[in-house]
What we know:
Layout: H1 4-10, H2 15-28, H3 33-40, H4 44-58, H5 68-81, H6 91-98, H7 102-116, H8 119-130, E1 134-135, E2 141-145, H9 149-161, E3 174-178, H10 179-188, H11 192-204, H12 213-227, H13 233-248, H14 252-269
Antiparallel strand pairs: 1-2, 2-3
Helix pairs in contact: 1-2, 2-3, 2-4, 4-5, 5-7, 6-7, 10-12, 11-14, 12-14, 13-14
Amino acid sequence: MPLFLFVIPYFYPNHITHLKQLFSTRITHMNNMEIIEQLKEAKAEDVKQVFIALLQDYLTPAFGSMSKRDLDILLFMKLQELDLFPQNPDLYELVSQLRVTRSKARNLLYESKLRHTSPKELDEELKVLLQHPIFLKDQDKIGIEIDNPYLIDHLRSKLKKLNHITDGSFSPELVRLTTDAFIALFESYLPEASKKKIQKAFVEIGAEADKSFKGILKGALKKLGTKLADKAGGELAASAGDYLEPLINASVQQIKARFSTLFNEDSNSNT
């Protein structure tokens, strides 16, 4: 639908109703009634402000100069502003609700993140994901499930700076890392003071072999991976989070409470 049709109802007294209908008409091409119903429930003032911002972008630098690709990306971002989609949607959610291919959904997500996400925000997203790894059974690898393709590029860049690479054979959303690469990435988000607190906590609960920070963390991950080896999928990731969240937050008491059991189990098995 030509964008100039958006402008006409804006000058009528009941323009808000028309705006909602016009947004709905555009989304109807996506063939999804759920999105349309959600849009009908949006606040009129919110729809008005989003429309004004959309029109300003469309008119820059001139009317009709924006490509269809850029218009699709812009419209998707406006739907996010109206909370019709979260800032970090699941890829399948986009595929099913927008009725687009997986490639198209990944592109929408990549471009929207590229345009309004800062490196600091990407780091915060990555820190959360690091708390929920998947301990893979093949070749001592640790997996991180990431739907956001832009975040995957950010991860690759960080690993390259840390002299590590990602496994090129992973699926688009499952990043496979060596244990050393995962530890290097995890460590990069910890200040020195936190590392010392974590190191001391592990020594106090029985870490005996390599007492360097990397050595302690590698030993702890190995024990954790062994403990969770028989679990699968979401259950495994959730369980890993119980252990790794205290680590990335340097919560000494929780570290001792979680990991002391692992070290005690190992000691008992050796007696």
